[in-house]
Write a structure and sequence with these properties.
14 strands; Triger factor/SurA peptide-binding fold; four-stranded antiparallel sheet; globular
Length: 646
């Protein structure tokens, strides 16, 4: 966990603050319903109480859905029950309890904010910002119009509570400080290259016939041929004109421009701040087009712009190497990523066109007629399933969206909402469904064996077995040769890594351990230093010896330190604040836990995670006057009306 805190310190602080303070629910949360589950389908009930204050199931589920949406960005949306398996549900509940405790602390301060200030605070929410981070009147007006009967009193009250929580959090984090010596030490550690010899402990797993059969019998439907759907659909394109900037960047780079600086100034990729510097890239079985093109570039070459998954990529290859075992070529490169976007108004217009098409098709049941009226062709695709690796007439970057959007749609029905892909918006109708087909064990034996091996690998028994083996091998061992000599039956090999820093990954070399853990174990010692066992990602163990280490040279300090200093300082400050905040809430839970009762309603939580959602009962409240439209130019303050407490 320490290395994760170091690597993701800024994001951890952000997530922690969002979880505790809570985001403002712009999608209509205070109208008494959630759009996520339909018009009247938020769960009733209470998942916990803090003193006399209930934590509502609707708030718990809203936070859970935010996490599911985040995970769905890279694939299909997982079921909510998955969050119970990895502990996320419990952490979300903890954060809601902390938020309730924080609200009690805020009440004690008596801190109050006038409505004009609350309004300005509301306008700063991300949901009301355009792509450039500026307030968008059109988004604001769309939200005001999105629902009648919104409870404005509740909105003001929640904003007041949220500002109070933010104030306490800021006060708690105020003492955070970082020293210059700490920042310079972190830079040195980040840029120090080390090389190791290592022994990997991963005894072969050979499942028995009983274990194989048990794996299959757990759920034979995992191995069935999936349900398949034939569909007809119309697509509203989200295509954007190719930016002229692309050719200009290629020209400047090929004429000798500093590629790293061009990336810092123009790229929209995750490695922008590092000048587009990528990790080593090795070929894989399912590489997208831009990675295939990258791997084909010679050292020193600058690619043409490559379009892939809604973005354009420009690469410059700086190094290459060949895997001695496989002969595969890997490259070290820099990239410039440009993600062109539709203008806000144009995208809204296309989304509205797709929404109207869906509404018309649902009303008439005739997609072809509705599409013809909208001037769109209707296309077809057959045998669409959860396992489809491509779908006829569907852009490859939209594969996940279409697969998941059609997953539970009945025959002759439409999805509830327009399917939003990266390249297109889809309005689809299911015209045929072929049911799933169970397969016997022998037909899918190879996959079942792999699953059985993975089940054994992740089992507590395997963990205990490896822990005991690691202790046995570590006892009185001072070198890798000692480790190998202790277990001749395992046929252990001593291998040597390439040079790496603690920010690199070694997965391409099949070393599945965090490099920061290796560095912490031996990187600050002298060559010959021995450490282990280190736990790997795949329930394996590693013993390591330091071969050599190379601190950053003067060139790195002159060229890289000025670029990274500010980011390192921000990261260190975020880590310090995250630690202070964690300590603050631990103390708060202990202090307030002695004064008030904190209970958790696991019956309600289990119902939500396993059975589904219940209808939310409507509430009758005296409502404050709603906000009014603001003109698209200047933004005068609307008349907010009386508060709920007045």
């Amino acid at each position: 966990m320490v290395h994760l805190m170091r690597k993701y310190k800024k994001s951890i602080l952000t997530v922690l603050i969002v979880l505790i303070i809570g985001p403002f629910v712009v999608w209509g949360g205070y109208a008494g319903r959630s759009r996520r589950f339909g018009k009247h389908s938020q769960p009733a009930g209470v998942v916990a109480t803090v003193g006399k204050n209930p934590i509502l199931a609707m708030d718990f589920e809203r936070r859970m859905n935010a996490e599911l949406d985040r995970r769905a960005q890279g694939g299909p949306r997982p079921p909510i029950s998955e969050l119970a398996k990895d502990g996320t549900a419990e952490r979300v509940l903890d954060s809601l309890i902390d938020s309730a405790l924080l609200a009690l602390e805020a009440q004690k301060t008596g801190f109050a904010v006038d409505k004009a200030t609350l309004l300005e605070r509301l306008k700063k929410e991300p949901a009301f910002q355009d792509d450039k981070g500026n307030f968008s009147p059109s988004l604001w007006n769309a939200w005001i119009d999105s629902e009648q009967g919104r409870n404005w009193n509740a909105i003001y009250d929640e904003l007041q509570a949220q500002v109070g929580r933010e104030l306490i959090v800021r006060q708690a984090m105020a003492p955070a400080r970082v020293l210059d010596t700490d920042i310079r030490k972190q830079f040195e550690d980040n840029h120090t290259k080390i090389q190791i010899r290592y022994v990997k402990i991963d005894p072969e797993i050979v499942p028995t016939e009983e274990q194989i059969k048990a794996e299959y019998d757990k759920d034979p439907t995992r191995y069935q041929l999936p349900e398949k759907r034939d569909i007809e659909f119309a697509a509203v394109s989200l295509a954007v004109d190719r930016p002229a900037l692309l050719d200009d960047l290629v020209k400047r780079a090929r004429e000798g421009g500093d590629f790293a600086e061009l990336a810092r100034q123009n790229s929209e990729g995750p490695d922008k701040e590092k000048g587009g510097e990528m990790e080593w890239v090795a070929p894989g079985p399912n590489d997208p087009d831009h990675i295939k093109a990258l791997l084909g570039l010679p050292v020193g070459a600058i690619s043409d712009p490559i379009e892939s998954f809604g973005a354009y990529y420009i690469f410059k290859v700086e190094q290459e190497r060949t895997d001695e075992a496989t002969g595969a070529r890997s490259v070290k490169a820099r990239e410039i990523v440009i993600r062109p976007k539709l203008a806000e108004g144009e995208r809204l217009a296309r989304e509205e066109k797709a929404a109207q098409l869906l509404a018309k098709a649902k009303e008439t049941g005739d997609l072809r007629a509705a599409a013809a009226e909208a001037g769109l062709p209707v296309m077809t695709a057959q045998d669409v399933s959860r396992d489809s690796e491509s779908i006829e007439n569907v852009a490859k970057e939209d594969l996940w969206a279409v697969r998941s959007g059609l997953a539970n749609v009945a025959l002759n029905e439409f999805p509830k909402e327009v399917i939003k892909g990266r390249a297109n918006l889809y309005v689809a109708k299911v015209v045929q469904i072929d049911p799933p087909v169970l397969q016997p064990l022998e037909t899918v034996r190879e996959k079942v064996v792999k699953d059985a091996i993975e089940t054994i690998r992740q089992s507590p028994e395997r963990a205990d077995e490896l822990a005991k083996l690691g202790e046995k091998l570590a006892a009185d061992a001072h070198t890798l040769q000692d480790v190998v000599a202790k277990a001749p039956e395992l046929n252990l090999e001593i291998k040597e890594s390439k040079e790496f820093t603690r920010r690199d990954f070694l997965f391409s070399d099949q070393i599945y351990v965090q490099t920061v853990e290796v560095y912490d174990a031996v990187g600050q010692k002298e060559p010959g230093a021995f450490a282990g066992p280190l736990k790997g990602f795949r329930s394996d163990l590693y013993f390591v010896e330091l071969v050599k280490k190379t601190p950053p040279d003067e060139k790195a300090w002159q060229e890289e330190w000025p670029k990274e200093e500010e980011q390192l300082r921000k990261g260190a400050l975020s880590a310090k604040r995250a630690q202070i905040l964690s300590d603050y809430f631990a103390d708060l839970r202990e202090r307030r836990g002695r004064e008030i009762a904190i209970t958790r309603n696991y019956d309600e939580i289990n119902r939500m995670l396993g059975i589904g959602r219940e209808e939310e009962e409507k509430t009758d409240e005296t409502e404050a006057p709603p906000l009014q439209h603001v003109p698209l130019g200047d933004l005068p303050k609307p008349n907010l009306g009386p508060s709920a407490s007045e």
